[in-house]
Amino acid sequence: MAVDQSLETFANSLRGAVLRPADQGYESARRIWNAMIDRSPAVIVRCADPADVVAAVNFARAQQQVVAVHSGGHSAAGSSVCDGGFMIDLSPMKGIRVDPARATVRAEAGLTGAEFDAETQAFGLATTSGVVSTTGIAGLTLGGGIGWLGRTYGLSCDNLLSVDIVTADGQLRTASADENADLFWAVRGGGGNFGVVTSFEYRLHRVGPTVLAGLLVWPRPMALDVLRAFRAFTEGAPENASAYAGLGTSPDGVPIVVGILFHHGRPKKARRCSSRCARSDRPSRTWSNRCRTPPPSRCSTRSTRRAIACTGNRRSCAASTTMCSRRSSPAPPPAPRRCQQR
Q1: What is the C-alpha separation between 78 and 74, in angstroms, rounded?
Q2: Are residue 140 and residue 227 in the same domain, yes or no?
Q3: Which CATH number goes with the domain that contains 101?
Q4: 340 lies in a domain?
Q5: Which pLDDT score, from 0 to 100, does residue 235 have?
Q6: Which of 7, 73, 163, 235 stands the most exposed, by the fewest C-beta atoms within 10 Å?
Q7: Which domain holds residue 51?
Q8: Last residue of some domain: 47, 62, 89?
Q9: Mean pLDDT on 278-291
Q10: Which distant-in-sequence residues (6+ apart) come within 8 Å of 235 by Cβ?
Q11: Are strands 86-89 and 67-70 parallel, antiparallel or unpaired?
């Protein structure tokens, strides 16, 4: 009874909401990106501002509760949620302010990569913010942060200038190269166990508004050639180009090889590069040094299943491919520990 009364008092002190298992909205709030993770916190605190975070940390410490920190909820390991403990949910905190004159941005921890990019691109600016648009910027940055712009501008944490962070003693601190430098060193890729970061300040770069990007799909029997070509491409690709490759299964169940290409240089040069690739017929031997990527087909098949069926004639039907020019928005990662922020 005393615990319920103290929780009620705590809830009344917040701007945000406190959810318990019987409350409306609890089920959706506890769900995270990885549907294999099915955990149920005793309490979810949906913080509206840093003051709510301070209060949540102090209350959890006083009650000796295990804490999980939910930002974007994209942790594959499920660090965003715990069983029977205390979830501090930062996803409602989506404030962001871009300073185009200084080429910096201050962003709250609940933002996803897509939301972040939309605001910075309004000024023609961007920074490394992941490869999947639904990933939260908080867990991404605290874990290092690989993204489409990484080969040019480094990891997300390389572009981090400062953070506001609530430490375990309930103090809101600023950490940067000049203030609490040891804490700043730790959060730049060290994970989320050093406190709850409420906002991030990043360095921005002139990017876009248009980039060249595309998805290439080959039948699985071509995997050896494609992956060899991918290795050659990544060894010599320019810094403004990125690529990913892997084995997968199409939506209709066909085994495939997938490549994703990204180029944020001059549009004419990027299109010229992709055109050379499209004219290549022998993936392991004939692509040019300027664009050594596995070739899409001359006859781009309309479905992966058809591409599988005609692999005997590689010159006429090598792969199914889609290339597109789109707005630049870097698109397509153990038991919960205390204060893992994801």
Answers
A1: 8
A2: no
A3: 3.30.465.10
A4: no
A5: 81
A6: 235
A7: 2-89
A8: 89
A9: 36
A10: none
A11: parallel
Give the mean model confidence (pLDDT) for residues 111-117.
Answer: 97
102 in the same domain as 181: yes
What 8-state DSSP symbol labels residue 84? S
Rounded CA-CA distance 134/16 in Å is 23
Amino acid at 142: L
Cα–Cα dist 340/317, whole Å: 48
Structural domain count of the chain: 3
pLDDT tens readout for residues 84-107: 999 999 999 999 999 999 999 999
Contact 138, 199 (CB under 8 A): no
**DSSP state, residue 131:** S
Q: Residue 211: what residue type?
A: V
What are phi and psi for residue 178, nearest 5 degrees? -105, -10
Please tell me the predicted confidence (pLDDT) of residue 272. Answer: 61
Q: Are 248 and 256 in contact (CB under 8 A)?
A: yes
Most confident of 1-5, 167-171, 206-210: 167-171
Residues 257 and 168 in one domain: no
Look at residue 341 and tell me if it is in a domain: no
SS3 48: coil
